[in-house]
């Protein structure tokens, strides 16, 4: 526009000046006329060049104001598929005047002065950050980013803590951190209790499924691609079962002729309300077992397993069982540090950070285990499958003074065994949030609140009353085998590095006794013995259980499992275990507390049995406290102030 106006003015001057020159200067000859014309052409050409330059300069400046792109972020995040571009609305661009320009230039000058002085005082800005054109209020963000990458661990941890405590930033400042931070900082923010959700970018888009394919079929293909080496009998059983069931389900969906009647749909519908979810659980259960083998984890990642599991996680957002199995696989894969970059790139950190803040204790604990295995900055231990940290699940400045371990018994679990008494449960939405009214895991809710300096660990392992109901028919695990397996996992989790208190229910107490005896015979595990301070037994059948007697007497009906058979009163292994442990515990002067039930327990709807009588629960050392409850409720208090006062006093030892 300015160029056009300038050209018009120049042309009008040329047009009006020529006649006057001819009337006042008749003496000019033709040579002078040619010189005069060439001068006009030069002036016109110069005007065009100058106007064009001004026009281009104006357009470049306007474009620069319209779109501001952080080139440093582009350089550092060029491997990612998302770049956060700050755009300036057109109305705001036009409103900037000379005052705004002067303010911006002043800020640049001040920043250059700060950067120059900072280089003298330990250089807080690195070369990659010192050239970034940012506003004065953004300096803190970039300083924290720089601090999070320093060589000293204390500085990095402090930077993550300051980021997690920032709740007054603008949205784009959180996004800057989300894009520019390294994986170590991202995992630290995910494990920080108060970190803002905007620190985590959404996961990258998932690849499209192949034509005429489904998640169930892709899951089956992934399972079939895993190596068939290093497999024990149970893993082979789970793999063959999953492939068989998924094949039948796929045939049913496609109208195959594999069953009587020519249509497999009724069989698929017999799985439940969501047939695909049940079939997928078969595959997930097998993949969980495969993920316990490090070399198989590489194949899961190479086969697109991280993205496929993420798709299943979103698809079954209302199915906690499926989601927990998926997080078990991610937690197992996170035990291999070489897979950490792939797990971070796939977007799992942001998804786990969301679940960690859930009020559902089981889901949050699975996410906490996976994130702890990813966090090599503050966590030296590794939590293998079945070992869950109930407290602390986030990074904390509270020093840990002791470990408290919870070991469930026959047919128990890491969470449900330690829930509050069911009759007191208030089935309302508010009760799910108010943990003072009801808790699904009192060690996580009550004990952690009263004793924050403890690390509370709960262990899970598979058991069964009968071989008919065993998850793996080929599995025959004795107490000795399970104790060695758990002992290895607990040592990997750092148990023995600080004082330890063992809390167990039923058969779990036998495992605790066996683990301590095995550790006493192994010099490499001597720290566990030296740091054991005490133990609490809830209805532990030190001298056998009547359940075992009942199961053996009708063994042709129940087919009692190996665990149940070992609980018989006449079991030589049980008697040897008791005698050896009593002598060992007296020598070490362990603090022991025994609780015992006084009410019978219903087994099914017709059988009523006193599972562990008082004489069997008496270890022979320590106090014995009878409680007016049955075997299942002995470790489930009705209220926080119930008989667990004795438990708390023992923990404080």
Automatic annotation (TrEMBL):
Its main location: endoplasmic reticulum. It is a single-pass membrane protein. Gene3D superfamilies: alpha/beta hydrolase, Leucine-rich Repeat Variant. One of its GO terms (biological process) is phospholipid biosynthetic process. GO terms for cellular component: endoplasmic reticulum; mitochondrial membrane. It is found in: Endoplasmic reticulum; Membrane; Mitochondrion. Coiled coil: none annotated. This is Protein SERAC1. Belongs to the SERAC1 family.
């Amino acid at each position: 526009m300015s160029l056009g106006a300038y050209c018009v003015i120049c042309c009008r001057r040329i047009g009006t000046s020529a006649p006057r020159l001819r009337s006042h200067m008749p003496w000019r000859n033709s040579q002078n006329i040619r010189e005069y014309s060439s001068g006009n052409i030069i002036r016109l050409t110069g005007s065009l060049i100058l106007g064009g330059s001004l026009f281009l300069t104006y357009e470049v400046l306007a474009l620069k104001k319209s779109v501001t792109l952080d080139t440093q972020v582009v350089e550092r995040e060029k491997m990612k598929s998302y770049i956060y571009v700050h755009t300036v609305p057109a109305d705001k661009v036009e409103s900037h005047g000379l005052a705004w320009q002067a303010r911006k230039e002043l800020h640049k000058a001040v920043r250059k002065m700060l950067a120059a002085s900072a280089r003298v005082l330990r250089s807080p800005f690195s070369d990659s950050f010192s050239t970034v054109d940012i506003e004065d209020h953004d300096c803190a963000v970039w300083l924290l980013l720089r601090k999070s990458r320093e060589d000293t661990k204390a500085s990095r941890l402090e930077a993550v803590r300051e980021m997690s405590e920032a709740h007054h930033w603008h949205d784009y400042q959180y996004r800057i951190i989300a894009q520019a931070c390294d994986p170590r900082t991202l995992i630290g923010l995910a494990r920080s209790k108060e970190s803002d959700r905007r620190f985590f970018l959404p996961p990258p888009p998932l690849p499209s499924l192949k034509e005429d394919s489904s998640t169930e079929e892709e899951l089956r293909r992934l399972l079939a691609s895993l190596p068939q080496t290093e497999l024990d009998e149970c893993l082979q059983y789970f793999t063959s079962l999953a492939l068989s069931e998924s094949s039948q389900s796929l045939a049913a969906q496609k109208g195959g002729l594999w069953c009587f009647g020519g249509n497999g749909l009724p069989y698929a519908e017999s799985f439940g309300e969501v047939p695909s979810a049940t079939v997928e659980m078969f595959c997930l259960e097998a993949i969980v077992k495969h993920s316990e083998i490090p070399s198989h984890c590489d194949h899961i990642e190479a086969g697109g397993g991280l993205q496929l599991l993420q798709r299943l996680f979103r698809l079954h957002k209302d199915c906690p069982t499926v989601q927990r199995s998926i997080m078990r696989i991610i937690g197992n894969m996170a035990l291999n540090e070489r897979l950490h970059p792939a797990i971070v790139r796939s977007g799992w950190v942001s998804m786990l950070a969301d679940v960690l803040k859930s009020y559902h204790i089981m889901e949050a604990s699975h996410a906490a285990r996976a994130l702890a295995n990813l966090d090599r900055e503050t966590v030296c231990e590794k939590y293998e499958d079945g070992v869950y940290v109930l407290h602390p699940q986030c990074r904390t400045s509270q020093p840990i003074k002791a470990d408290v371990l919870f070991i469930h018994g026959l047919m128990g679990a890491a969470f449900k065994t330690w829930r509050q008494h069911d009759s007191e449960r208030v089935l309302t939405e508010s009760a799910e949030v108010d943990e003072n009214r009801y808790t699904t895991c009192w060690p996580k809710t009550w004990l952690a609140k009263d004793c924050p300096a403890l690390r509370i660990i709960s262990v899970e392992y598979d058991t069964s009353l009968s071989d008919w109901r065993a998850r793996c028919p080929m599995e025959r695990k004795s107490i000795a085998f399970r104790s060695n397996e758990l002992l290895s996992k607990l040592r990997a989790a750092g148990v023995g590095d600080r004082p330890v208190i063992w809390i167990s229910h039923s058969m779990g107490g036998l495992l605790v006794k066996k683990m301590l005896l095995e550790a006493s015979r192994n010099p490499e595990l001597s720290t566990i013995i030296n740091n054991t301070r005490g133990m609490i037994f809830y209805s532990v059948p030190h001298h056998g259980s009547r359940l075992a007697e009942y199961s053996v007497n009708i063994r042709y009906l129940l087919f009692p499992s190996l665990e149940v058979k070992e609980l018989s009163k006449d079991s030589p292994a049980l008697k040897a275990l008791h005698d050896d442990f009593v002598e060992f515990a007296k020598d070490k002067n362990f603090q022991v507390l025994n609780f015992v039930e006084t009410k019978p327990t219903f087994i099914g709807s017709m059988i009523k049995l006193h599972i562990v009588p008082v004489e069997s629960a008496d270890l022979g050392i320590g106090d014995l406290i009878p409680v007016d409850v049955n075997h299942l409720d002995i470790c489930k208090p009705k209220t926080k102030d119930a008989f667990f006062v004795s438990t708390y006093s023992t923990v404080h030892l």
